[in-house]
Amino acid sequence: MKCTNNIFICFIIKLPIFKRSLFCLYIIAFLFASTNLNAQQTINGTVLDDQSGEALKNVIVLLKKADVHFHTLQDGSFILKTALLPDSLFISAMGYEQAVYPVDSSHLSFNIRLDRHEIELAQINVTSQRLLTEVMSVDLKMNPVNTSQDFLRKVPGLFIAQHAGGGKAEQIFLRGFDDDHGTDIAVSVDGMPVNMVSHAHGQGYADLHFVIPETVQDIDFGKGAYYADRGDFDTGGYVNLKTYDKVDNSSVKMEGGAFNTIRTLGVFNILNENANQNRRNMYIATEYGYTNGPFDVKQNFNRLNLFLKYNEWLNDKSYLNVQASTFSSNWNASGQIPERAVEEGIISRWGSIDPTEGGNTARTNLLLNYKSFLSDNEKWESMFFYTDYRFCLFSDFTFFLNDPVNGDEIQQKESRNIYGMMNQYAKNFYFKNSKLAWKSGFGFRYDAIGDLELNHVFHRYTLLDNLSSVSVGETNLYAYTSGEWQSGKWTINPALRLDYLIFGVDNKLTGDPVEVAQSVVKARPSPKLNFFYNFNDKYQLYLKSGMGFHSNDARVVVAQNGQNILPYSIGGDLGSVLKPFPSLLLQPTLWYLFLQQEFVYVGDEAVVEPSGRSQRYGVDLSVRFQPLKWFYMDADFDYAHPRFIDNPKGEDYIPLAPIFTSSGGVSVRLNSGLSVGLRYRYMANRPGNEDYSATAKGYFVNDLTLVYPLKKWELSVQIQNLFNVEWREAQFYTETRLQNETVSVSDMCFTPGYPFFLKTGVKYSF
After folding, report:
1. For residues 165 and 331, what is the distance between their CA atoms, to the nearest angstrom?
2. Residues 6+ apart with CB under 8 A from 30
3. What is the spatial distance between Cα 377 and Cα 398, in angstroms, rounded to a whole number?
């Protein structure tokens, strides 16, 4: 036999029969090993709470040697693929002991139960997809909050101010923005938007008073406009509060303090223990509060809240959540008072020029959320919501400037219904050395505002002039898609969002320059692109970039024939997350933001004034330190340089925009259960007007909280403004005229911040 055509075959044939057989066995073994080396083994299982048996979502499941990880789904399930076995499976979640399981080809399916453990900073991995939420969980455990407004203060760099008797939405400051009540920050609860478009008191008005603080479990937030599922008002950032799906027991609480302050709370677990095993949960929470405040004119502030939430796993793959909430409140307000009125002794620091300011408001929400896990790698989610809203506010910004006889008090009034829907599809794709998490969504929001009014009134009840009366229909249709590709140490996240807005206005006043029943439409694309590089589990570097937008008031949109409808923003963050050692976490960030059009709301004229282009840049630094399990320190430092672009230098300051802020504190939780927290808030002086000839004064305020649990009881003490400093909570540079003045004066007007305020409470759980 000749072997000239194939040397390899000739070589085998010429071997002795024994060696030929042995060589063939080697070849077969090699092919078998190669087949097994490239064969992907599937590892799956579920992760449950050891005490309750509840499925745990977002648990990190890591194959150590293969360096492949997965986050458990809503039903606690996970699935991983690897060709490298044997290996070790590491399971870790915030608030639970880490578990380790050996994995080999004979053991690929797991039913894992995790033991609960106190949340600590050392548990946090900087590469976690839920990094900010996990850090916030530690913050909330070590520094519990007592009001829905305190949740906003938990966001690093975010400050709030109240200036209308407690019932009005807070003024918000973030990243060089005086956001008014929400113009440049998107606020939501369980995904339901809180911001009000074309609101009677200001575009983006975000009132969180319908939230009962004891029902909030997590705070999700982000700065900048880098998130595909966030739309209108997400220029400076967003905040989403997540309520508890279940409560372990029922409780009642009573609080009382200075200025005739009382607060009662009840949280009641409705279903029995067997319902928990059937994966059904339902609870009701109710809250009532009253206070007169420190002002000469008693606030007489009343608020009643109700909240109900029911959720159930219909089967292993389908989840349903239904919730309803309602609240109503009414109050008196001292308003903003001129500096000169206090300095000249016309009124006290706690006095008012117009004692009839105040208002009332109410909001009822219905929310339905359905989730379906179509497969191990696919999820569909739908949310439907409805809101019925009422608002009436009496304000006096200028006193006797326009009407020297009756004064300038105005009434801002509206009633609306909001209908909305959101749908999202998510799927994970696994490749040999990478993973792609893809999600796309679409939805709409429709605001039907039947009565949107601005009236000139005398002492609330006498109508002097109807300045504006319209009905508005505003629709926001949107769609987005986002991909998160992970390969090695890199994560790349491109995204695109498209919003389409329809503004319709029906004027009810004859002779108004706005024509009857006009409509305007506008679309706004918002691309995003984010990069993350994980050097290791202690150091992450990221670059975020994207466009966002904020919408204008429909009344102004139509009156200006569709100009300045959806001015866009362009921004970027360059930052890192570092854990030089387990008990210390640092997050420094450099950022920049360009805004096509600033908006300034002029409440007594019911218009939003376009104020030109602006830019902001700055530095954020967050520090978290927990050297001991019972000792925790946190601090946030935020510097911003906000300027108008088109104004001459020296006249380009953005009024009331914060320049430097800092907040933080020290918390101690002893083995006895005693918890002590000392916190501070600092805001530096900032410009009161465009040329900085007027100054909004800064402040440094400290608060103290003590909580002591005793079996089923819990005692608490809260002290606001511990050192009783004089400070100004809200400030405005305004042209005003007092009743005894012949000419108007422009100066700073302010609402004084609370003095030393002591409140005690007792809670009983059953």
Report:
1. 6
2. none
3. 60
With a CB cutoff of 8 Å and minimum separation 6, the contacts of 186 are: 193, 195, 230, 231, 232, 233, 234, 237, 238, 239
Alpha-carbon span 616 to 618, nearest angstrom: 7
Q: Give the tokens for residue 47.
A: 């992760």
Residue position matching structure tokens 């995904």: 191
pTM for this model (two decimals) = 0.87
Tokens of 21: 């057989």
CA angle at residue 271 from 193 to 150, to 5 degrees?
35
Token couple for 252: 């009642």
Closest CA to 413 of 396, 395, 393: 393
Beta strand 280-291 pairing with 318-332: unpaired
**For the chain, how many residues are written?**
766
399's tokens = 């006193």
Residue in the structure block whose two tokens are 């009332």: 360
Strand order across the beta sheet in which 99-103 lies: 68-71, 60-63, 87-92, 99-103
Which pLDDT score is estimated for 706? 95
Position 226: which residue type?
A: Y
The Cα–Cα gap between 400 and 341 comes to 13
Closest of 339, 344, 271 to residue 310, by C-alpha? 271
Read off the tokens for 605: 């004229």
Spatial separation of the C-alpha atoms in residues 703 and 709, rounded to whole Å: 20
Q: Concatenated DSSP letters for 367-420?
A: EEEEEEEEETTEEEEEEEEEEEEEEEEEE-SSBTSS-TTT---EEEEEEEEEEE
Per-residue confidence (pLDDT) for residue 150, from 0 to 100: 78
Question: What is the rounded distance in angstroms from the CA atom of residue 539 to the CA atom of residue 625?
Answer: 16
Greatest distance between any 2 Cα atoms in the chain: 125
Question: Which amino acid is residue 695, in one-letter code?
Answer: T
- Do the strands 631-644 and 660-669 form a parallel or antiparallel pair, or are they unpaired? antiparallel
Residue 131, φ and ψ in degrees, nearest 5: -55, -55
* Distance in angstroms (rounded) separating the CA atoms of residues 257 and 761: 9
Measured CA to CA in angstroms, residue 375 lies from 73, 79, 313, 318, 715 at distances of 10, 11, 16, 11, 47
Q: How many CB atoms lie within 10 A of CB 743?
A: 5
pLDDT value for 8: 44
**How many whole angstroms separate alpha carbon 395 and alpha carbon 398?**
9
Identity of residue 726: E
Please report the beta strands in 93-162, taking only residues with DSSP state E, as ranges in sequence order. 99-103, 109-114, 159-161
Could you tell me the mean pLDDT of each successive run of 10 residues in the chain, 766 residues long?
48 53 48 48 85 75 82 79 85 82 86 82 81 85 76 91 84 93 95 96 93 93 95 95 92 96 96 71 96 94 97 90 97 93 95 95 98 89 98 95 95 97 95 91 97 94 93 97 94 97 88 62 96 92 97 86 87 96 96 91 61 95 94 97 96 96 95 92 97 97 95 94 96 94 95 96 96
pLDDT at 41: 83
How high is the pLDDT of residue 68? 80
Distance of alpha carbon 80 from alpha carbon 68, whole angstroms: 7
CA distances from 290 to 88, 144, 254, 324, 633 (A): 56, 21, 12, 23, 33
For 188: left if phi > 0, alpha if psi spans -120 to 50, otherwise beta; the answer is beta
Q: What are the tokens at 604?
A: 């007594």
Residue 57 has what pLDDT?
A: 77
Is 281:49 a contact under the CB 8 Å cutoff? Answer: no
- Count of C-beta atoms within a 10 Å radius of residue 482: 21
Output the six-digit token pair for 347: 């009124």
- Beta-carbon count within 10 A of 487 CB: 12
The domains located in the chain, with CATH, are 41-117 (2.60.40.1120), 131-765 (2.40.170.20)
Closest CA relative to residue 555, chosen from 482, 492, 607: 607
Joined tokens for residue 479: 């769609």
CA distance 406 to 400: 7
Q: H or E stretch including 304? A: strand 301-315
